[in-house]
User: Which sequence fits this backbone?
């Protein structure tokens, strides 16, 4: 009985209570990530899924090169399973078959011998009947893999090492495309022409700021292995610019007149991935069901030379009408839904064409660096040994004497090391010298080899020290591959009458763009606010978290640019229409979903840019009082990852950015009640990488709390953390020189620290937000106009432990009884 109780206690200890929902969630996430990263999606660097990579690496290890005989697929599949891929044999053989199909791959990576399936959907023969080896171009996928160019990881049972990625000396992801369905996502990357893709890579190397339109001059669109005709370029542009696009592909057809006076429709190329046998069957069924009338017969005359389908048209039917019906009802016209999704740094990402090319260039630059480091070390090691051999030949008699009187090799090696100050590697090489290496001719050969190695070492070091040189090598080697393998384009790109681009589909209209305190952005048609009878923004215009409120707002054309500046000193650019349109009550979309912001990066300023005018400037001010002035045109670039707006000192952050006309004046105010007004021309125009200069001299513990551009008719609003506020005329702030100590703006020792300053108009509304999330909206004209150091009036009652943290300016919000004229006033930024 005691033993039974002990067993029960032990069983209770082995039972672990688990929340079933939590366990299911964790298990499904683990499974999802495994499918996404390790099975279904290609790597952006080599364009391969793990199974394809393992097949090629296994064939490379086993020496199945193009110059060697074909080898049984069964043996290769077994080797892949046993060494690297612990899954079913069908998955490996199916992947291997696809690599060998000329109708699936634009450039086949496996050279198959036997029945590997057909465009009619016929299955391949079993792997015991087929043979395969690597294709010639596949060898370039593995070039220099033994020179430490890529990382290796343990295989599934830690017996062997397999490459994380192949060196892929040509951009295989775009050249051969990829298709896969993961959990919650899918990829569908079309294949492209090798020569065109390499030309686009070289163009991006030469001009890193090249836009999609420029890249499309070299790489106009997909090039499918089965040919066909792409109808229009808008779908291609959409895919290249956004990572998603619908590309319409038609079969290549021709209407010919037969001898009997009837017409035939000849089909010689099909859209990518269309099953020919199923297509013919579908056409026959449509004719049978009388959905398509005018077809009398269908014959398939395809052979090894090429595809040839003949569709006989009835005597009284129009061949053009019949052909249009075939395009409408059958797969003679299909839509290729491009989804440019790939694994980047272990994460699935939707990529633009430029993103893909940039990732590939960065990868190849890394390959060149690692290969050069490997070659450099090898050359240095060889030169080091030769220097030792040279010493041995110079003192050959003494070397022989030392070796003869030594009792064994270790003692001879030690004696040589002591006598000639050699290291162990050099001494080992000397004791292993052959007698034939003691001649004068051998000494000459060693000196020549040392000289050649020194030249190589110098070249390797120059390569490692120069990014430009590495990129030149990438370009040179790509051009060599292009010259070797490039072939004519198969897929024709045909212009469509009346085709419009994505941007042309978006109407040019006036919009209101808003950015909230918590980073939510949305676009609204400007008449939304007029219908609502409001001036432009406010708590009642959005359904957000109770303490959230719009802090930036302006009217902008839907095709204008918007610059977003962050506290980390970066700037990002979007077209206004790229911001999703919201309803009156929607909170919008978090800006982090539109811009590649870091986890702790926040947008602090939003600037509308109708055009990048060289006569316009941006003024930036940081919390620590650094100011920078730069031409607006400096940010006329569409880099996806944004640009550095200014270099920040440690602990500083960019807080205010305003556009000026080049001759404005600015006011900068601090928390401890100091303000300074100066001309913007006191700050010289700088470059993008510049850090900036001092706006004013800050006392210890003081920080900037506001910056505004002075404008005619405006007043300077100062609000304290304790809830007092006042308006002052800008004339109260005399113009000083930049970098000075400034003037007293507020008596903080009496009335509390300054929370914010802002230049406002009397017909504005002022939104004040406290630390506890309390929001108040008051009319600017209700605040008393006082002289500069005055306390002002209470603008917000502050509770114990609370304080004012944010002040925003908005156009006046119309009351219910106001006329429509009041609400048409435009929202404005500072």
Assistant:
């Amino acid at each position: 009985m005691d033993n039974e109780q002990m067993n029960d206690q032990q069983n209770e200890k082995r039972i672990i209570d688990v929340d079933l929902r939590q366990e299911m969630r964790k298990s499904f996430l683990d499974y999802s990530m495994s499918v996404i990263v390790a099975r279904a999606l290609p790597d952006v660097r080599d364009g391969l899924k793990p199974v394809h990579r393992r097949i090629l690496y296994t064939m490379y290890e086993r020496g199945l090169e193009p110059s060697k005989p074909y080898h049984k697929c069964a043996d290769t599949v077994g080797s892949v399973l046993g060494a690297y891929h612990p899954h079913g044999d069908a998955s490996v053989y199916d992947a291997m078959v696809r690599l060998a199909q000329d109708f699936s791959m634009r450039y086949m990576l496996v050279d198959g011998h036997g029945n590997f399936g057909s465009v009619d959907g016929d299955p391949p023969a079993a792997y015991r009947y087929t043979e395969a080896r690597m294709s010639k171009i596949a060898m370039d996928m593995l070039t220099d893999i033994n020179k430490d160019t890529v990382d290796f990881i343990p295989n599934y049972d830690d017996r062997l090492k397999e490459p994380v990625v192949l060196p892929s000396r040509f951009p295989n992801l775009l050249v051969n495309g990829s298709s896969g369905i993961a959990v919650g996502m899918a990829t569908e990357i079309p294949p492209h022409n090798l020569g065109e893709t390499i030309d686009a890579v070289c163009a991006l190397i030469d001009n890193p700021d090249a836009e999609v339109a420029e890249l499309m001059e070299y790489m106009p669109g997909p090039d499918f292995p089965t040919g066909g005709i792409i109808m229009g370029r808008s779908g291609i542009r959409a895919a290249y610019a956004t990572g998603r696009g619908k590309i319409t592909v038609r079969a290549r057809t021709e209407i010919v007149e037969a001898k009997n006076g009837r017409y035939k429709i000849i089909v010689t190329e099909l859209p990518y991935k269309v099953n020919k046998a199923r297509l013919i069957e579908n056409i026959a069924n449509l004719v049978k069901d009388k959905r398509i009338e005018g077809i009398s017969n269908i014959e398939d005359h395809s052979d090894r030379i090429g595809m040839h389908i003949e569709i006989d048209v009835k005597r009284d039917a129009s061949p053009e009408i019949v052909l249009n019906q075939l395009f409408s009802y059958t797969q003679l016209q299909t839509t290729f839904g491009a989804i440019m999704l790939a694994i980047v740094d272990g994460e699935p990402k939707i990529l633009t064409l430029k993103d893909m090319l940039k990732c590939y260039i960065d990868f190849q630059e890394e390959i060149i660096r690692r290969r050069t480091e490997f070659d450099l070390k090898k050359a240095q090691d060889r030169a080091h040994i030769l220097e030792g051999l040279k010493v041995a030949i110079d003192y050959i008699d003494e070397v022989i004497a030392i070796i003869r009187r030594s009792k064994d090799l270790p003692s001879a090696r030690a004696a040589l090391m002591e006598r000639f100050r050699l290291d162990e590697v050099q001494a080992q090489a000397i004791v292993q010298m052959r007698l034939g290496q003691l001649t004068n001719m051998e000494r000459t050969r060693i000196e020549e080899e040392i000289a050649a190695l020194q030249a190589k070492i110098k070249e390797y070091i120059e390569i490692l020290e120069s990014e430009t040189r590495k990129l030149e090598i990438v370009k040179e080697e790509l051009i060599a591959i292009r010259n070797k393998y490039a072939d004519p384009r198969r897929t024709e790109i045909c212009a469509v009458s009346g085709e419009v681009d994505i941007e042309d589909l978006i109407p040019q209209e006036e919009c209101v763009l808003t950015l909230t305190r918590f980073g939510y952005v949305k676009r609204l048609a400007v008449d939304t606010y007029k219908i609502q009878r409001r001036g432009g923004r406010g708590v009642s215009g959005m359904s957000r978290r109770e303490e959230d409120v719009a802090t930036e707002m302006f009217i902008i054309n839907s095709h204008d640019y918007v610059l977003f500046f962050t506290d980390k000193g970066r700037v990002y650019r979007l077209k206004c229409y790229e911001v999703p349109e919201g309803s009156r009550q929607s909170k919008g979309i978090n800006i982090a979903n539109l811009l590649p912001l870091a986890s702790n990066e926040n947008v602090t300023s939003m600037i509308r840019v109708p055009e990048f005018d060289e006569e316009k400037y941006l003024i930036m001010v940081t919390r620590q009082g650094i100011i920078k002035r730069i031409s607006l045109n400096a940010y006329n670039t569409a880099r996806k990852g944004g640009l550095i707006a200014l270099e920040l000192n440690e602990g500083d952050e960019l807080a205010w950015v305003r556009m000026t006309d080049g001759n404005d004046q600015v006011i900068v105010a601090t928390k401890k009640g100091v303000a300074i007004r100066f001309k913007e021309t006191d700050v010289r125009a700088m470059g993008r990488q510049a850090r900036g200069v001092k706006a004013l001299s800050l006392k210890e513990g003081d920080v900037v709390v506001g910056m505004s551009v002075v404008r005619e008719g405006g007043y300077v609003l100062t609000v304290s953390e304790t809830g007092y506020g006042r308006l002052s005329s800008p004339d109260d702030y005399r113009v000083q020189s930049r970098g000075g100590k400034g003037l007293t703006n507020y008596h903080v020792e009496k009335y509390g620290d300054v929370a914010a300053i802002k230049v406002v108009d009397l017909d504005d509304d002022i939104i004040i937000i406290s630390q506890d999330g309390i929001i108040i909206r008051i009319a600017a004209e209700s605040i008393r106009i006082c002289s500069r150091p005055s306390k002002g009036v209470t603008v917000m009652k502050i509770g114990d432990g609370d304080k004012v943290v944010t002040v925003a300016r908005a156009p006046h919000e119309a009351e219910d009884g106001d006329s429509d004229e009041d609400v048409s006033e435009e929202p404005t930024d500072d």
About this structure: Residues 252-331 form a domain with the Gyrase A; domain 2 fold (CATH 3.30.1360.40).
